[in-house]
Amino acid sequence: MMSQEQNDALTRTNAGTLMGDLFRRFWIPALHDWELPEPDCAPVRVQLLGEKLIAFRDSQNRIGLMDEFCAHRGVSLWFGRNEESGLRCPYHGWKYDVTGQCVDLPSEGPDGPMRKRIKMKAYPCIEMGGVIWTYMGPPELKPAPPALEWANVAAPQRFVSKRLQECNYLQALEGGIDSSHVSFLHSGQLRTDPLFKGAKANKYNENDKQVHFDVVEFEGGLLIGARRNADEGRYYWRITPWILPFHTIIPPRGNHPIGAHAWVPIDDDSCWAWSMNYHPSRPLAEGELAAMKDGQGIHNQYVPGTFIPLQNKRNDYLMDREAQKKGIHYSGISGIAMQDASLQESMGPIQDRTRENLCPTDRGIVMTRRLLLQAAEDNRAGRPIMGLDPEHQRVRSCAIELPPEQHFKDHARHGLDRKSTRLNSSHGYIS
Predict the structure, then answer these.
(1) Structural contact between residues 68 and 77, judged by C-beta atoms closer than 8 angstroms
(2) In this model, does residue 286 exceed pLDDT 60?
(3) By CB distance 3.0 to 4.6 Å, which of 199, 227, 281, 344 could disulfide with 212?
(4) For residue 48, what is the enclosing H or E element?
(5) How many CB atoms lie within 10 A of CB 352?
(6) CA distances for 314 relative to 167, 172, 241, 265, 303, angstroms
C-alpha cells in the first residue's frame, strides 16, 4: 500500500515538484507538426506540466513555445498576430520572437531600454516523427534528441494520434504496462479489431488468464514480461518496455504494426495520451492506415474540431449494456483506446493509491513507481538519470514463444534489440 506522501510525489508535475522537475529533463511531445501547418499560421494554446503556453511558427519556419500571456498586462497571446518573425500582442502591440524576447515595444520607440529587458519564459522545440517536441528543463542540461524508434522511421511507416485523457498521467501509464487486463477488458476486441485480429497469440490471451509477470531493469527503464501458457508445453511471453519517464511500447500481434504510447501530463488532473503505430521495415498498408484514421486499434474518434474522444465521460463512453451481456465488448464499451480510458478515468482525476490492494500481476507497476521516484531523487541530487541517454531508448517490444527453461531476458534479445539483423518480416515475433 502506498502512502499519501508517495502518491503526491508521483502524481504532481508542476514546476518545483519532484516529478515535475524530472519530466522537465526530457524532450516532451507537445503537439502534432500539422497543428502549426505553415509559417505565420495561427498560434496554438498548449498546456504541459501545469504551464499554459502558446506555440507558433514564425516567418522563417522556426517554432516558438512560450508563456501564453503577454508580459505587459497579461493578455493571452492566442489572440496575437503572427507576423514578420514574431508574435504581436493585439492590445498594445508588444511583439516577441521565438525565444520569448520582446523585439518591439511601440510606445517606447526603437531605442527604448525597456524592450531589451522584457523576455518571456520560452522553451526550445524540435520536430521529429510528425511531432513537435519541447524541452522545459535547465538549458545547460538539454539532452540529445529522442532515439525512440517510432519517431525515427520514415513518415509512411508511422501513424500518430493524441487524445485528451481526463485523469492523472500515472494511472494512464500504469494501464499501459499492465498486460493482465487484456484477457478481460479487450477480449472481445482482439477478435474483431482489424489491427489485432487474426494473430495466433490471441488465443493465449483468452485461454490463460492467470498471467505470470517477470520484470527486468534495462538502461532505459523496465522490460515487463507477461507469461502465459502456449502450445506444446511452451510459454508465450509479451514483453512491454517502459522507457522513462512516460513512454511504453506495445508488443505486436503477428505482422500487425507495433504500437506505442506517451502519457504526457497536461496538469495533475489530465494528460495527453499519444498513440503511435509504426512498422520498422515497411510502409503502413492502406487498410491499416484507414483503420487507424477510423479510430481502430489504440486510436479513437473525436468530437469534431477537438482532441476530445467522441466516447467520453459526459456520455458514459457510449456504453452498451447489451453488448456487454453478449460478450461483444467485455465492458460494454467499444474500442481498445476507450476501453482503457473509461476505466482509468473512473478512478477519479488522481487515483487514491492508499486504498488499493496489489497482487503479483502488479509487479511491473510497483517497480515503475519505484524507479520513477528513484530517478526523481537522482535528478535532485545531480546524479545520472535512467532513460535520458538516447542510446537507452533503442529498444523494441517483443512477443515470443519460449520453452519453460528459457527466460526472455536471455532468449528474446534478438526481438528486443532494434539493431539486430536476425529480425524477420514479423520483427522476430510470433504470429
Answers:
(1) yes
(2) yes
(3) 227
(4) strand 44-48
(5) 11
(6) 14, 19, 33, 21, 12
Contact between 168 and 350 under an 8 Å Cβ cutoff? The reply is yes
Condensed to tens digits (0 to 9), the pLDDT of residues 7-27 reads 999 999 999 999 999 999 999
Question: Where is 397: in which H helix or E strand?
Answer: none
CA gap 354, 389 in Å, rounded: 33
Cα 385 from Cα 363, distance rounded (Å):
22
What is the percent of the chain where pLDDT is above 90? 65
Residue 352 to residue 11: CA distance in whole angstroms:
11
Pairing between strand 102-104 and 212-218?
Answer: unpaired
pLDDT tens track for 153-211: 999 999 999 999 999 999 999 988 876 666 666 656 666 666 666 566 676 766 666 77
Q: How far apart are CA 13 and CA 30, in angstroms?
A: 15
What distance in Å separates the CA atoms of residue 41 and residue 32, rounded to the nearest whole number? 14
Query: Strands, E, within 129-269: which ranges?
Result: 131-135, 158-165, 212-218, 221-229, 235-243, 247-250, 258-267
How far apart, in whole angstroms, are the C-alpha atoms of residue 43 and residue 36? Answer: 7
Q: How far apart are CA 292 and CA 283, in angstroms?
A: 14
Residue pointed to by grid coordinates 460494454? 332
For 318, phi and psi rounded to 5 degrees? Answer: 55, 40
What was the pLDDT predicted at 428? 33
Map residue 45 onto helix, strand or coil.
Answer: strand
> Which grid coordinates are listed for 83?
507576423
3 state DSSP class of 201: coil
Helices and strands in the chain, H and E counts = 13, 19
Condensed to tens digits (0 to 9), the pLDDT of residues 249-269 reads 998 877 789 999 999 999 999
Neighbours of 287 (CB within 10 A): 10
CA-to-CA distance for 343 and 331, rounded, in angstroms? Answer: 9
Q: Can you tell me the distance from the alpha carbon of 416 to that of 223, in angstroms, rounded to the nearest whole number?
A: 9
Determine contact, residues 178/364, Cβ cutoff 8 Å.
yes
Cα–Cα distance measured from residue 84 to residue 106, given in angstroms and rounded to the nearest whole number: 15
User: Residue 163 corresponds to which cell in the numbers above?
Assistant: 487524445
Does this model's pTM top 0.70? My answer is yes
Backbone angles phi, psi at 256, to 5 degrees: -65, 155
Contacts of 305 (CB under 8 A, 6+ apart): none
Residue 411 main-chain phi, psi, to 5 deg: -120, 10
